[in-house]
User: What shape does this take?
Amino acid sequence: MENVYVMKKAALTAVIFLAVLVIPVFALEKTDVTVRAGRQEGILRLVFEAEESFLKKTNVSLSGMQINVEFPFVFNLKPQKDFNLEISAKERILTINLKEPFEMKVLRLSSPPRLVVDISAVNAKGPADIKAQAEVMLSQKVFVIDPGHGGYDFGIMGSELKEKDVALAIAKDIEAILIKRGKAVFLTRKSDQSVQLRDRAMFANQKMPEIFISIHTAASESFVLYVPMIAETGSEQPASDAYGLSSRQRKYAQKSMKLAEALGKAVKEEFNLNVVQREMSLPVLNSVGAPAVLVEAPSFKIMSYDQKTRARLAEAIIKGISYYGQ
Assistant: This one.
């Protein structure tokens, strides 16, 4: 029996010894990351390719004239031959050094999984540029912004994001910009609360807005802009359908289409993503007595929706409203 005990103890010791040797090997295993660079129309595009789960957890940030790419695990960088940027790597962070101030846009694409970083130089603005920017005026004075979902209605769920939270954050960014321009802005909800569609529409009509925009995110890789689907003139419509479309939205139908086109142009310019415009009988749109558009921004896989991305989207929507007024 004593010999058996000694043999078992020796075997257990051997297993533990092997485990100690094997664990560091797996811990140090690196994920391959391929990166390539290309230039087009003044934009430097960096494309990182790796496993989708790896790229989903990768964060990109700015620090002065550096781009820091923080991967979730240690990595093995495989730059293509034409990649001639100054870079340094330490553990999980890749640092890219640039020689002049720049702006950055980050996109997440699938099939195949890619993390795309677009870099463009920031030109110093002279008096003429500042004057031109100041001349982008909004003629409208009253706005209602509708952050979709809320409360127990989460909307689309990501690994770390909820549609209801992103929609509210974007709506508040839009509100802040418009208030700075002296506009009256009303949100259908100001916190994480549940608001029925009928109540949203009633609230909007009480404020008599000149523009109504509902904010959502989508499961697609595109921006989708919804406008009310209007029944043909003379067609019968039940009194309960669309909460009184005939008396409210019908006379704004063409203006809603025009507003959607203007918003689509602006977000296309800012994000260079596909924009789809659709007609749909959505009560929250059909009930409002104002030009009304529901904006569905791309999925969480495509856009990070960090503070900078949300600010860009808010500015693009403001720019779209200015296009509508031209």
